[in-house]
Specification:
Elements (H helix, E strand, L loop, with lengths): L5 E2 L8 H11 L4 E2 L3 E2 L8 E2 L1 E6 L2 E8 L17 E2 L2 H14 L4 E6 L5 E2 L6 E2 L1 H8 L5 E4 L6 E5 L2 E5 L7 E8 L6 E9 L10 H18 L2 E5 L20 H11 L6 E5 L27 E4 H7 L5 E8 H12 L10 E4 L1 E6 L8 E6 L18 E7 H4 L12 E6 H12 L10 E4 L11
Parallel strand pairs: 1-2, 2-4, 6-8, 8-11, 11-13, 17-23, 21-25
Antiparallel strand pairs: 3-7, 5-6, 9-10, 12-13, 14-15, 16-18, 17-20, 19-23, 19-24, 21-22
Helix pairs in contact: 5-9
Length: 449
């Protein structure tokens, strides 16, 4: 791909620093991050910035890790590395690079936008907040939130493209080599198509036996649904991190299936794909060709939805701890974040205008028919409930309370969903109001489709 430099985000630390170090050692390009403290004690080969000479112009590229990265991985994954505020770190690194002769400065950061103002066309979110508070940068490249955007903010061209290679950005700039002044700059977003690439036959031959084995394992139809079960939520958010979703309901219902647990909660960030097979046949997925309903669900689809190998764990939780879990889940709103909860067994109402940490106003049990008409849930320390969640959350991931010392392990999440679907198909999930937003002030609730 011709990569010259990269920065570090939360997913780089998913398997800890030892694993990351092995990947850094393998890379044919350097990693940079200016806002990591104690980096030398944990990782070798990560610098705050790198300077490249391009067409006679010295270009400094400065990196930064997203500030919330430690919350998005299991505790301990960062070793003793601390993630500091990227603003002063980027400014300081840029100043040092310019003192070394850098004429053009570029920031690459694992932060993204969270929306675009319909009136002005300008974006908002952590990437924009960062850009507005750093100085002297000509370009700021972000990611992390799966948006495609370009715009000028604080005299910098800000660019973010879609995740997972769905688009990439080609940035072109005209620079005066005499003084390093950026004369012109622009961006073109490109959608890469497999049809435009000539496959490498040697690689195809190498992969063929593995694809055959995987096809046998992952193409097994384990269930079906009368409706399409998409990753998108009931507010139309594609990554399902804003509102209740059909797929969130199915996953959490599966967690509670065949257990005596009161409630199940999972973070939306752990759900990564559609559950039902697409109606358009794709020869490269693990789905059969079909027409009409029910829509098939295969082993491979479930594993694509839940790719992280998370485990369902059980804990005895007080009512106060349950409220803290729900409060954490809705604390990031109105922004769409991975901690947003999908739930089963309960229906929670929250006030988006209240201060984060005090938003949950009521919780009731789901009735036998799934409706939100059950008894009120006691959210005091005197009450106790059996709660299921994934092991990432239970160990403090995504900011949830760390209860790992008092959990018992059940099964892998994908196995749990497969078991549920094999016994309950065809499923017909609906949006039931399990997470209901209200507003007592100016803050606006997400719009239900």
């Amino acid at each position: 791909m011709g990569i010259d430099v990269d920065t570090l985000g939360n997913h780089n630390f998913d398997k800890g620093t030892a694993y990351l170090q092995a990947r850094i050692d393998e890379a044919a390009f350097p990693y940079i991050a200016a806002n990591l403290v104690n980096i030398e004690e944990n990782l070798v080969g990560v610098a705050p910035y790198r300077i490249f000479t391009m067409g006679g112009v010295k270009v400094a590229v400065v990196g930064a890790t997203n500030f919330d990265a430690p919350e998005l991985v299991k505790p301990g994954s960062f070793g003793t590395i601390e993630v500091r505020d990227p603003v002063p770190a980027l400014n300081a690194a840029r100043a040092r690079a310019q003192a070394e002769g850098a004429q053009v400065t570029v920031a690459i950061v694992h932060m993204g936008i969270t929306g675009v103002d319909a009136t002005t066309g300008l974006a908002f979110g952590p990437l924009i907040d960062l850009t507005n508070n750093i100085g002297g940068f000509d370009f700021v490249f972000g990611d992390h939130t799966d948006f495609q955007y370009s715009g000028i903010h604080n005299n910098a061209l800000v660019v973010e493209n879609k995740s997972k290679g769905r688009t990439y950005a080609r940035v072109r700039a005209a620079i005066d080599p005499g003084n390093g002044r950026v004369i012109d700059r622009g961006v073109e977003f490109i959608t890469p198509l497999a049809s435009a690439v000539t496959p490498d036959q040697a690689i195809l031959d190498m992969l063929a036996p593995y694809r055959q084995q995987l096809t046998v394992l992952k193409s097994v139809v384990i269930g079906s649904s009368t409706v399409a079960i998409r990753r998108a939520d009931s507010c139309g958010r594609g990554d399902g991190r804003l509102c209740e979703s059909l797929i969130g309901n199915v996953v959490t219902d599966a967690m509670r299936h065949d257990t005596d647990a009161d409630f199940a909660i999972t973070n939306s960030g752990g759900i990564r794909a559609d559950l039902t097979c697409p109606s358009t046949n794709n020869p490269f997925d693990f789905c059969p060709a079909f027409t009409g309903t029910p829509l098939p669900i295969t082993n491979g689809q479930v594993q694509t939805v839940l790719p992280f190998g998370n485990i369902v764990v059980q804990s005895n939780i007080t009512g106060a701890e349950l409220k803290a879990m729900l409060e954490n889940g809705v604390a990031g709103l109105p922004g769409a974040v991975g901690r947003f909860p999908q739930v089963s067994g309960l229906c929670a109402t929250y006030d988006i205008a209240r201060v984060a940490g005090s938003r949950v106003t009521s919780v009731v049990r789901q009735a036998a028919d799934g409706s939100c008409t059950g008894a009120t849930v006691d959210l005091t320390a005197a009450a106790s409930y059996v709660v299921l969640q994934n092991d990432f959350m239970a160990s403090g991931g995504d900011g949830y309370p760390n209860v790992s010392a008092r959990t018992s392990t059940l099964d892998f999440m994908d196995n749990t969903v497969i078991h549920y679907l094999s016994h309950e198909s065809p499923v017909s999930p609906t949006i039931q109001g399990r997470l209901r937003c209200t507003s007592s002030g100016a803050a606006v609730c997400p719009t239900q489709l």
